[in-house]
Write a structure and sequence with these properties.
The complex is a heterodimer of chains A (112) and B (115). Chain A has 112 residues and is an all-beta fold. Chain A is built from no helices and 11 strands. Chain A is globular, with a radius of gyration of 13 Å. The chains are: A mainly beta (112), B mainly beta (115).
């Protein structure tokens, strides 16, 4: 069974630029999560989808972050414009409804 | 608000020695409890979880954890550490009865293993 795929693995941008991350969950997983993991901290949930609907985006900085999940499968997380404090690893996870979460390898973002 | 505390930022042990990583939670009711491991450049992998029943749970890679309600703790243990166990370990909780499955993570404990 293929795991959660994420791309790119690494991204370096300058502040005020835009960036997008892509996630392909495990086939058949209805629920998809995006987490932000800042160096020295545990992952923090940004947004959660169930199929293609948002069920929790309370921690998403909506003035600069956006996310979508097209057709209930792949998802894209965008930051526009990026700030220095957005430097982090962005993890995507998926699960069967509310079951065990399986994590992708993450995208490491550096904002200069 | 839910909180998860991992008091040890970094632990160093010798290969073959025993290991205990501490985790305490603050929550109104006993949540679901998890331990994850993250190797460099990798995503998080679930080691074990506690929902109910036997308070000593067995996981993968020879790890176990014990839930102690009176101490609000869920400590991870391994009797004999291998060099390949060097990684970062995260304790996490999920609100019991939640339909959302949202996880709250501790800050992590970095484990170094000396040969």
């Amino acid at each position: 069974e293929a795991g959660v795929a994420q791309s790119p693995r690494y991204k370096i941008i300058e502040k005020r630029q835009s960036v997008a991350f892509w996630c392909n969950p495990i086939s058949g997983h209805a629920t998809l999560y995006w987490y932000q993991q800042i160096l020295g901290q545990g992952p923090k949930l940004l947004i959660q989808f169930q199929n293609n609907g948002v069920v929790d985006d309370s921690q998403l900085p909506k003035d600069r972050f956006s996310a979508e999940r097209l057709k209930g499968v792949d998802s894209t997380l965008k930051i526009q414009p990026a700030k220095l404090e957005d430097s982090a690893v962005y993890l995507c996870a998926s699960s069967l409804l509310a079951g065990d979460q399986y994590f992708g390898p993450g995208t490491r973002l550096t904002v200069l | 608000a839910q909180s998860v505390t991992q008091p040890d930022i970094h632990i160093t042990v010798s290969e073959g020695a025993s290991l205990e990583l501490r985790c305490n939670y603050s929550y109104g009711a006993t949540p679901y409890l998890f331990w994850y491991v993250q190797s460099p450049g990798q995503g998080l992998q679930l080691l074990l979880k506690y929902f109910s029943g036997d308070t000593l749970v067995q996981g993968i890679k020879g790890f176990e954890a014990e839930f102690k309600r009176s101490q609000s703790s869920f400590n991870l243990r391994k009797p004999s550490v291998h060099w390949s166990d060097a990684a970062e370990y995260f304790c996490a909780v999920e609100e019991r009865g939640s339909t959302l499955g949202r996880l709250y993570f501790g800050r992590g404990t970095q484990l170094t293993v000396w040969p």
